[in-house]
Amino acid sequence: MIDSHCHLADQVFAADLDAVIARAKEAGVERALVILAAGDAKEAGQARRIDELWPEVRVAVGVHPHQAHQFADSPQRAADIVREQTAGTPSVRAIGEIGLDYHYDFSPRDVQQAVFRSQIGLARERHLPVVIHTREADADTLTILREDGGGEVRGVLHCFTGDASLARAGLDLGFYISVAGIITFPKASELRETVRGVPLDRLLAETDSPFLAPVPHRGRRNEPAHVTHIVAALADLHGLAPADVASKTAANFHALFKP
To answer: What is the value of pTM for the model shown?
Structure first.
């Protein structure tokens, strides 16, 4: 079983990182993809601790759309920082999370788009997959993936909450669909119906921890061990045993990220 997206380098895990990793291993989580904010020295430092405690972990590095405003004067500088950090981080397997977020608009939309485009270009240059964050920006996200990805960039739509049309568009681009704890929420019936239509060989399971803890942990800090609940929910949707879904989503992770 693999947690395909978590923020284990977040400082919220600093005090009990050893215990969090131990619980993940005890739950049967073989590895995780840890998302790092490009240029964040504290996260990079904690990532080194994670590497010592859990060598199987791999990482993704990117500039999140919330931070895009920091590069308003030079969107290409965002890609340059990611390029430098990935070059010095042997465990990097993806660029991300990157994308667009029009819900909060913490960064101007034109700046978000320019920073996103610069990092898609880097992914093409480095032949790395991308981890995509899209919120209330699906049309623009898909346009940029098509235009700047050039049919060469693959990746994952992380923490998927979209509708069937977004899922189909992502699949047509060769992307995987990653499901987080929201799939377990009582009011997420429409999402469950959409995910039921995604082929099992294109699904990933994630926690997005420390956020979005699944039922029965909702309202508390999330952690990689809880990916078991997402796997169980996917198994229920597809009428399979959790062990089979765990095995298949792990194989999908290996196919995409080549850890």
So the answer is: 0.97
